[in-house]
Amino acid sequence: MSPTDPIDPTDPAGPTAPDAAAQSDALLRVRGLKKSFGPNQVLQSIELTVGRGQVLALIGPSGSGKTTILRCLNGLELADGGTIDVAGEVSLDFGTPPTKKQLAALRDRSAMVFQHYNLFPHKTVLENVLEGPVVVQRRPKDEVTAEALALLDRVGLSSKRDSYPFELSGGQQQRVGIVRALALRPQLLLFDEPTSSLDPELVGDVLRLIKELALEGWSMVIVTHELEFAREVATEVAFVDGGRIVEHGDPKQVLRHPKEERTRQFLHRLLFPF
Amino acid sequence: MNQSAWDLFWSSLGPMVQGAILGTIPLALASFAIGLTLALGLALMRLSRLGWVSGIARVYISIVRGTPLLVQLFVIFYGLPSVGIVIDPWPSAVIAFSLNVGGYAAEVIRAAILSVPKGQWEAAYMIGMSHRRALTRIILPQAARVSVPPLSNTFISLVKDTSLASVILVTELFREAQQVAAFSSEFMLLYLEAALIYWVICLALSSVQSVLEKRLDRYVAH
């Protein structure tokens, strides 16, 4: 990948291969993250580490808190306690409510792909992608447009640049959602059940794209129900239940030979629903 | 209808149309523009997390909607002078109508903002927008589409309500009609004529509304 490649994730340094060195040089470090909605404690004390170029898959039953973890990482939910550290550059301690500036810095480091795409319906595909880099990051429009078109071309949607989201299929919308996230040049990509609202025959395209991005060295946290996908793409899988990380580790180990009874039950239910 | 009635119809058409063009229409446009600005502010206040801020807006809206427009006009034009505030007929009418539109349209705008899915706010925050920028670039354009039909209703009502300004001596369509009628005693003819002109104006507004709706609907599936 050349340094000018539009989706070079760690531009200008270039992506780092996930290895032991990257492990110690964590991109994302979460410690003791807590979150309650009223009397309901949805995150008990979450500990996570994602190295550069690594892919963490969060699996678990609905309501387990995995999506809340992801939303805390992007500041869409404010944690009540604990710390989030990204690349040693942004460090937030939620013991005190973060300032707007801290929150902006946190959001600046990551970009999220939503379950329901959440494209801006009143903007064309290209405008959706440009909005963040041009309006918020104030990068030169020509440069960003060229980059955006290259990204759209890559996901096979350059012919849709002037279409509105309602004219696209779910799979196409989600690919635009991914391009919108990439165009922000984040250090960390967050995927919130990216294929859960897609028709089954459209899931493959989106998963394939995410896998390609993973292979290129993007650092990611993915909330997913696609176990086979998690096993293949993730460098680490964490099973979340009741607001805790019940078990985490190598995907094959967690998904094939779980240590915890609860993980086993969950996997069994998913593999043999009836 | 006999010849003299027709003559009266045609001869009074000029002053009435002039009243519409110089009175009714500018009065409605000015009041709507000011009222909408006020309404947006009130809608945002209503949505504020600060209890007292939304409380103020709530009380204001309640008063405006809970009292007759005619009474509001009288308070401003005939009432305020007794506390030393004298305002001319035209500005009095604009103030009363603006305050009124502000109260009604605020609820429309508030509902329209709330109708935009929460995910739109989240996507806006995700790409790094501040609350204000998310509101102006992402939420309000979508809310605008939803609020065109109800706001058109508000505007059409306003056009007709401007006839109330005749009681505080503003020269507009209906006051012209009253003056001609007083001289000729052809009440039926002249008031029907006034009604006809209001109707024509509102028909024109309805077609503007549908053009606007089509324009704003270009990004929505049908």
From TrEMBL, chain A:
Q: Which domain of life is it from?
A: Bacteria
Q: What CDD domains does UniProt report for this protein, alphabetically?
A: ABC_HisP_GlnQ (cd03262)
InterPro entries from the UniProt entry: AAA+_ATPase, ABC_ATPase_HisP-typ, ABC_transporter-like_ATP-bd, ABC_transporter-like_CS, MetN_ABC_transporter-like, P-loop_NTPase
How does the protein associate with the membrane? Peripheral membrane protein
Keyword hit for Nucleotide-binding: yes
Disordered: annotated span: 1-21
Q: Name one GO cellular component term.
A: plasma membrane
- The reply on keyword Protein transport is no
What's the short name of a Pfam family annotated to this entry?
ABC_tran
Which keywords, in A-to-Z order, does the entry hold? ATP-binding, Cell membrane, Membrane, Nucleotide-binding, Transport
- Could you tell me which residue ranges the ABC transporter domain spans? 28-267
Protein name per the record: Amino acid ABC transporter ATP-binding protein
Mind listing the GO molecular function terms for this protein? ABC-type amino acid transporter activity; ATP binding; ATP hydrolysis activity
Query: Where is it localised?
Result: Cell membrane
Automatic annotation (TrEMBL), chain B:
How is it placed in the membrane, per its record? Multi-pass membrane protein
Give a GO cellular-component term. ATP-binding cassette (ABC) transporter complex
Q: Which positions, given as ranges, span the membrane?
A: 20-45, 57-80, 188-208
- The reply on keyword Metal-binding is no
Q: Which UniProt keywords apply?
A: Amino-acid transport, Cell membrane, Membrane, Transmembrane, Transmembrane helix, Transport
Record's subcellular location? Cell membrane
Any one Gene Ontology molecular-function term assigned to this protein's record: L-cystine transmembrane transporter activity
Domain (ABC transmembrane type-1): residue spans on this chain: 21-209
Q: Does the keyword Transmembrane helix apply?
A: yes
Which Pfam families does the record associate with it? BPD_transp_1 (PF00528)
What the entry lists under InterPro entries is as follows: AA_ABC_transptr_permease_3TM (IPR010065), ArtM/GltK/GlnP/TcyL/YhdX-like (IPR043429), MetI-like (IPR000515), MetI-like_sf (IPR035906)
Q: Which family does it belong to?
A: Belongs to the binding-protein-dependent transport system permease family.
State the protein's name: Amino acid ABC transporter permease
Q: Which organism is it from?
A: Cryobacterium cryoconiti
Upper lineage is: Bacteria, Bacillati, Actinomycetota, Actinomycetes, Micrococcales
